[in-house]
């Protein structure tokens, strides 16, 4: 089963766009009365609960015995909110409660309200973000609220308390540091959530000066939406390797879900890295830029690592690192049918190696189900090499990189982006710079099932990693926290240059 396991993170990439009920993708009719919104919320929560109960690997995961109890709590709590739903904002909030309580970033529900639904996002005229340990104004249309100002409190309560009451019950989890970077900006947004009270006046501070500002909530402007897109990760760079200054090599890998042109760019970049290896060995620094990266297929980062450090060197360390890891596929009827359908799609697209892999997995899952087993356990051959042994270079390895390798990590780095960090951190001289990463679960390879209302989907993972070194809900902390307001290439360059000056290799 070795080949099955090594192909898993690549195998279902094509399935990301393949819905389990593709026929249900037409535009839904939006509820027109408060009672209809309430009923839609209740129906969708009940459906999401059943789909998750019947198919989620957590239901039989021996390393997560509390999953079902948490799922029941998620249903009951979100149904309590659903009873008070009267409109689109309440509907969204009730389903978000289900997500936060199930506590699985790869499962739950994803709501997509139609553009013409009766809802208009509002803001107070400025965009605020979390940086390191505080909330700051990123950009503003108001002269009295300048960029760079710190928000200390609102209506007499600390900003952190507002995040605990207004944001984290509906988005992210307060115990994950990266979620503060990702979700704190929602405090200064009115998304029509009827279950929260919006702040009215906030205390701000800049250069030692404190003042009170009364918030005026109005429809968000186009400029506000643009700031929202730019604030978290800065510029979006094309896939490839550049040299912004002599001795520096900047590797832009800001997506692991590449389109056709980006796939070609990745292949060219791998070749460029190999051809310039002698220059990389003498580099001042190598930068792997993961800004904007939200995951996809881990094959792209694995191939990047092989180009940088050498294929066999990477293979040895990865095998030793994951020596105890097992992959179990949840053998539910829904999951099996999904994979069997996906095999047919992949064959029509001439993706035959992936189709062959999935066909074998689906067949083993069906055998497991016939035997009344909850999982097909794709267990690899035992790995006997220790990490210490794996780190010993062989004569066939290319010369080892001994220069600083900085990996820019955004707080939204999840899924295959985290898989990349798993691999990169196995090599000497690697330093993470940026924010705490996201924290995903050990449940992977998702499919979607349309909700009864048509206003979103239930997300169902198909498999679970057991004994993965990075545990369920564990994030990466950067060695260098990037607390500057603007996540620009220029600012990162300056901070990395300062780090090299302080701690040269």
UniProtKB/TrEMBL annotation:
Keywords: Signal. InterPro entries: ClpP/crotonase-like_dom_sf, Tail-specific_protease. Residues 268-466 form the Tail specific protease domain. The keyword Repeat does not apply. Residues 1-24 form the signal peptide. It comes from the Bacteria. The keyword Signal applies. This is Tail specific protease domain-containing protein.
């Amino acid at each position: 089963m070795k080949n099955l396991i090594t192909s898993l993170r690549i195998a279902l990439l094509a399935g990301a766009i393949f819905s389990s009920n593709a026929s249900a993708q037409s535009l839904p009719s939006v509820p027109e009365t408060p009672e209809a919104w309430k009923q839609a919320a209740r129906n969708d929560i009940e459906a999401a609960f059943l789909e998750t109960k019947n198919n989620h690997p957590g239901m039989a995961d021996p390393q997560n015995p509390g999953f079902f109890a948490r799922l029941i709590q998620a249903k009951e709590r979100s149904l309590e909110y659903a009873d008070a739903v009267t409109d689109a904002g309440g509907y969204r909030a009730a389903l978000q409660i289900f997500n936060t309580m199930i506590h699985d970033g790869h499962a739950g529900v994803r709501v997509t309200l139609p553009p013409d639904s009766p809802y208009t996002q509002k803001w107070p005229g400025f965009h605020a973000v979390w940086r390191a340990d505080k909330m700051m104004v990123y950009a503003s249309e108001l002269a009295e609220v300048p960029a760079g100002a710190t928000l200390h409190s609102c209506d007499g309560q600390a900003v952190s308390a507002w995040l605990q009451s207004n944001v984290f019950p509906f988005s992210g989890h307060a115990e994950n540091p990266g979620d503060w970077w990702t979700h704190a900006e929602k405090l200064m947004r009115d998304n029509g959530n009827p279950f929260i009270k919006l702040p009215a006046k906030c205390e701000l501070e800049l250069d030692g000066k404190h003042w009170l500002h009364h918030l005026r909530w109005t429809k968000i402007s186009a400029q506000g939406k643009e700031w929202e897109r730019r604030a978290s990760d800065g510029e979006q760079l094309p896939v490839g390797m550049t040299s912004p200054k002599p001795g520096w090599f900047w590797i832009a890998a800001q997506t692991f879900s590449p389109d056709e042109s980006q796939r070609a760019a990745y292949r060219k970049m791998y070749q460029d890295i190999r051809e310039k290896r002698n220059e990389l060995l003498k580099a001042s620094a190598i930068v792997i830029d993961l800004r904007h990266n939200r995951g996809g297929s881990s094959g792209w980062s694995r191939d990047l690592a092989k180009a940088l450090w050498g294929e066999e060197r990477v293979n040895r360390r990865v095998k030793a690192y994951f020596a105890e890891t097992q992959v179990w596929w949840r053998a539910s009827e829904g999951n099996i049918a999904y994979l069997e359908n996906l095999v047919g799609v992949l064959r029509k697209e001439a993706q035959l190696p992936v189709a062959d892999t999935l066909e074998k997995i689906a067949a083993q899952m069906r055998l497991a189900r016939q035997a009344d087993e909850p999982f097909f356990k794709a267990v690899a051959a035992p790995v006997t090499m220790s990490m210490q042994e794996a780190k010993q270079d062989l004569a066939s390895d290319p010369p080892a990189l001994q220069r600083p390798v900085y990996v820019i990590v955004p707080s939204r780095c999840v899924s295959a982006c985290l898989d990349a960090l798993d691999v990169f951190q196995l090599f000497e001289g690697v330093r993470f710079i940026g924010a705490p990463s996201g924290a995903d679960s050990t449940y992977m390879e998702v499919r979607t099932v349309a909700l009864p209302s048509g206003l979103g989907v239930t997300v169902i993972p198909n498999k679970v990693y057991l004994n993965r070194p990075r545990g369920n809900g564990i994030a990466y902390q950067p060695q260098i926290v990037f607390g500057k307001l603007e996540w620009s290439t220029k600012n990162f360059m300056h901070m990395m240059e300062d780090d090299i000056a302080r701690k040269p290799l």
